[in-house]
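Troubleshooting: if your tokenizer reports a length mismatch, compare your output against this known-good record of 696 residues.
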Amino acid sequence: MHGDDRTSSGPARTIGLALIVPVAVIAVIAAATSVTAGDGDDDRKKLPTGAVVRFGTPRFAAAAGVTAAAVAPDGETFAFGGAEGELHIVRVLDEETDPELVDPISVEVGVPIGAIAFSPDGARLVVGPGKGSDGALRIVDVVGGSVEAKLEGHEGLVREVLWTAPLEGADGRGPEVIVSGGDDRTIRIWDPVKRAETRAFSAGEAVWALALSPRADHVVSAGRDGMIAFREAASGDLSRQLDGGEGTVHAFAFAPDGETMASAHEDGGVRIWKLSGERVGIFPDARTVKEARARAARLRRYARSAVAIAFAPDSSAIAIGNSDGQLQVFSIGSGRGGLDLRAHAGGVVAVAFADDGATIVTCGADGAARAWSRESGEEQELRLSSGGRGGGGVVTGIAFGRDGREVLVADGARVSLYDVARGWQKAEMKLDVPTERIVGACFGGSDASPEIVAFTTDGRIVRWHTRVERMISATTVSLPDRVSGAGPDGIAPAPDRKRGAVFRGGTKVVALVDFATAEVRKRLEHAEPIRWVGWTSGAVVTWAADRAVRVWDPRKGRLIRRIDVAPDDAGYRESQRRPAPGHAISADGRYLALVDGDEAVRLIDLTEGTIFRRHVVTGGPRLVAFSPDGEVLAVACHDGRVRMKGVLVGNDRGSFAGHAAGVSALAWTTVEDGTRIATGSEDTTSIVWDPTKSER
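Known-good structure output:
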């Protein structure tokens, strides 16, 4: 279906969910169970080869390209998939289960994933294809972990799929059916037993939300115009339309009483309807909806708004997941609000009630799956076969302090400061504005007055003093508005840690900023959007969409040199569309390394303006970092491994394997007894490694 760091010490619990709504999660599943280092000597023995310490425990983790999720009817199985075409299936564990004996299942479906739905018995899945695919649905065997069949008929992206056993009458259930809708403006109904299409009809526009009425006699659909259409399931004839207002409808939910329907809208409001077509309520109220519209407009500058809804089992209340990460619960009868809490760092994109109505489960754009007490709002333990305890969101940035004793980890919602030797968290910085996310962070200030400096999606430079643990300032930088979907924002600190370079995704300006005041000292203008920026002791280096490296004088804001180095091939261009394409500058400012497509890293001599080496690297290279002496290059990969190569000759220097998902942050520093490498991952953990103890 379309798409605070707490650790509980209480008993695990298995939660049965009454899942009624389509689910969409931007997520990656951690594929193995790990233990946080620093919890005891026994835990340290479980560290991977070469690891000094691990912070966090793997759990669901966000990553670009992962596009859909679903929860089985029993509430005990989760399925996630993404743009790479890999489907991950994990289970909720009961108190007796050893998580090491319950491995997640991964299935390669062969196409990008646009939508997912479980069969009524939870034994199978139907997968709708994502963008750029062949349009065929896939039926997947959950137990066997294999694709059983293809259902051909759609053209292109399928945004919604349902798998249901509709009511035939008083005597019992009729045959199971699959219903699908997509960008080809058609709704199709399939027989999953015969694995054939039984009927198809026009939806009038691209289908963004899809549902079956309680008696399965009508298909309900909606798209971007806000109109909700009821069509007879047998013929496809339009029975009636409901005007939901302007903007896209993202999801439907039918109440268990069979008399009420809810629709979730782009403006942040949820409309409540009687099945007769009468609108009987809107949550939040009108004043709040106005505020929600303004909030949604801001969020749409950065990412698509995601709204999820679910009715309580007794139909008395509705839970709303908002695109700013808030979870709200409203009474249907009185309209009064109940629960209102920050559930996720990113948007809440899926929500469901437990069978008893006392627990609510949410999935978020930060990749976490969490359970909440409806009465108190306290987070409940939700043990998963991929870890499930501790950790934050996907690690988006990592950096060492000057002496290598501290490591800074940013995960979008917070920046945490860890003591490497002791293996514990020293401080944590959180944002004061819920709609913001941290897109980059670094150390600032001085040894006498140490600071964390973060750059946010709202264009603010936020400074936080690590010793007194309080925010010093939060000042907005004068920058062009971010262009939606055009790549990540960026920050690069100068060696003095008092200034840095920042840019916003899709824009053509790099701003050289004083951290203390957020004053823009120089603007580096580009003809094409910026993709990356780095800072050496004497120059700023930028990389833009025209595939050229530029070297700038930071004092004068003057271009020193342009180097056209990138290959003009489709594989490379595709790699640069992904988040955080790998680039790094050696400590002496001479060499630049950049990820070159899916299999190689290209090395450029910045002083001579020449390409002098291309290293082939397996595992999907993603990020790069030079050793402090410039002789070795660490390459972090999509497969979760870090591989090291000699800079000049390209010989193998060892590797590390310890992350359960792709490496999303990388840093290398000098310490008293040598050097250390730090990695952050989509599995939400961070690891510090000793390069001399790598696997050979």
